Amino acid sequence: MKVLTATLVLLLFIVLFQGCLAASYKSDESDKKEKSDKPEKSDESEKSDKAEKTDKSEKSDKSDKSDKSDKSVPYDYSANIECEKEPPKPLYGGGILTDAEAPAPVATGGKKLLMAKTTSAPVKGSTLKFELEKDTHYALSAWLQFSKSTGDVRAVLVTPDGKFNTAGMIVVQSGCWTMLKGGATSFSAGKGELFFETNVTAELMADSMALQPFTFEEWKLHRDESITKERKKKVKITVQGSDGKELPDAELSLERVAKGFPLGNAMTKEILDMPEYEKWFTSRFTVATMENEMKWDSTEYDKGHELYEIPDKMLALAEKYKISVRGHNAWSGLSVAQLKEAMAKRMKSVVSRYAGKLIHWDVVNENLHFSFFEDKLGKDASGEVFKEVAKLDDKPILFMNEYNTIEEPNDGAPLPTKYLAKLKQIQSYPGNSKLKYGIGLESHFAIPNIPYVRGSLDTLAQAKVPIWLTEIDVIKGPKQVEYLEELMREGFAHPGVKGIVLWAAWHAKGCYVMCLTDNKFKNLPVGDVVDKLIAEWKDVPKDAKTDDKGVFEAELFHGEYNVTVKHKSLKELFMETVDLDSKSEATIKAKGKEY
Ligand SMILES: *[C@@H]1O[C@H](CO)[C@@H](O)[C@H](O)[C@H]1NC(C)=O
Ligand SMILES: *[C@@H]1O[C@H](CO)[C@@H](O)[C@H](O)[C@H]1NC(C)=O
């Protein structure tokens, strides 16, 4: 399971900037004439600049209201996980950073900006300054390089309310440029600042930086556009009578009955004895993860005596309802005494037992935080265990499962760049190149940084393996419901995310951090929001009718549908199941009693 979001006490050398930003890193544009005098900005020019900006933002405020949708900049999902010799162009042409106030340019000129210079002692320097809007998400991107050495760099966006938001953290190298993607939300209007922090004693160069504002409405609009693109498809249903003639004006009612975007929840053994629990769970979810029942310490808590009765029964129950099961987890939750031999035995035992029956295995769990196995068994221990699991069962996608990668930019251990480096190491272990991999993100949230979540998903998606939010929950608080909805929508809309599993396993004695129901299986507000999303994500057009050619066309969520046909030539309703996931066209022959 998880260790709750460890609050990290960060002792940062606030690295300060001796340095220096070139006035603008976007090429001059005629409409930005005020930029040319930036490098020598005096107090006075700063003032007049500010006045200008206030003007500008007022103007854009006004025009914004009326024609938001056609003016909004599309969100850029691209990211780059290579260390590049030259930094590519900034996203969004740099966004509002093209107007940022900056200190004097670097002596060497060009567009490369010296953002920080640390020697043995922290050095004071300066930051980029700009105006921020209220209730606005800011997407940040930047290319970074050290003059020597390698280490973590944190981007900090100071919002007008004085809050220091970690907008992203990344491993930066020397000799090539690495892309950081992240962001933060501003809930107030006024001056904002951006700076970087690092403990590495070197010069930190930045290039192709961009900070792009999106109103909350724009952010939602991008999500909706992405949902239409990623989760729906245009389908065409032709309805014919038993004679093969098209039936115009047939009334159709559609219901999605299978497939579609996988949405699941954690399940506990109590489900075996409680019909109301069984009914509640199986009527909602298409995926299940056993909370603890498949773990090593559950199946072999008495060393040498394996007990699989409970997980066997839970699996059979899931199968009965065509619910897919994620294997959680092959390898973790062990005492120090259990070592290599025990491990090999465990792999054989659990993986072979459920071979062919699971869609996923969480092969290594939370291993970016706890390197117990790597420490004991060598640096390739994870690569070996992936290979071993694949040998015993070639059906499931094999996952790393980790917390804080998208939840907590201040946790240096599981950063997206480190996650990808570990995945690459596992993939390059001899014999592992052809295995099916997955990126498991536990997603245990407190207060989410939504732009950071999306930016991190963009980065992780570059590995081109399916991403699942494997254990999503939000701690109790006044905004629990709102945050959960927002996060589930982010996951559902993101092109890289292929499934979501909630971590809301029901126990009579209480849930881990989030319960969807009370003890009578009556939904709590969090459960209601989950149900609302389930309904929304399989919503179908009302009043569906075939045209005069007997054809009905629509944009539907992926899935398998039961289509019921009502037509004046038919005595009874006719129902057929059509798979609109693998195909986008179907012909229904409404056989049966006709008038
Ligand atoms: C700098 O070092 C401190 C102390 O080890 C650590 O807590 C902090 O996260 C480091 N900062 C960065 C940006 O790596
Ligand atoms: C969908 O249709 C099939 C027959 O084609 C039927 O067995 C099944 O019960 C239907 N499902 C629902 C939810 O109506």
UniProtKB/TrEMBL annotation:
<dbReference type="InterPro" id="IPR044846">
    <property type="entry name" value="GH10"/>
</dbReference>
<dbReference type="Pfam" id="PF00331">
    <property type="entry name" value="Glyco_hydro_10"/>
</dbReference>
<dbReference type="InterPro" id="IPR001000">
    <property type="entry name" value="GH10_dom"/>
</dbReference>
<protein>
    <recommendedName>
        <fullName>GH10 domain-containing protein</fullName>
    </recommendedName>
</protein>
<feature type="domain" description="GH10">
    <location>
        <begin position="248"/>
        <end position="533"/>
    </location>
</feature>
<dbReference type="GO" id="GO:0031176">
    <property type="term" value="F:endo-1,4-beta-xylanase activity"/>
</dbReference>
<dbReference type="GO" id="GO:0045493">
    <property type="term" value="P:xylan catabolic process"/>
</dbReference>
<comment type="similarity">
    <text>Belongs to the glycosyl hydrolase 10 (cellulase F) family.</text>
</comment>
<feature type="signal peptide">
    <location>
        <begin position="1"/>
        <end position="22"/>
    </location>
</feature>
<keyword id="KW-0624">Polysaccharide degradation</keyword>
<feature type="compositionally biased region" description="Basic and acidic residues">
    <location>
        <begin position="26"/>
        <end position="73"/>
    </location>
</feature>
<feature type="region of interest" description="Disordered">
    <location>
        <begin position="25"/>
        <end position="86"/>
    </location>
</feature>
<dbReference type="InterPro" id="IPR017853">
    <property type="entry name" value="GH"/>
</dbReference>
<keyword id="KW-0732">Signal</keyword>
<keyword id="KW-0378">Hydrolase</keyword>
<keyword id="KW-0119">Carbohydrate metabolism</keyword>
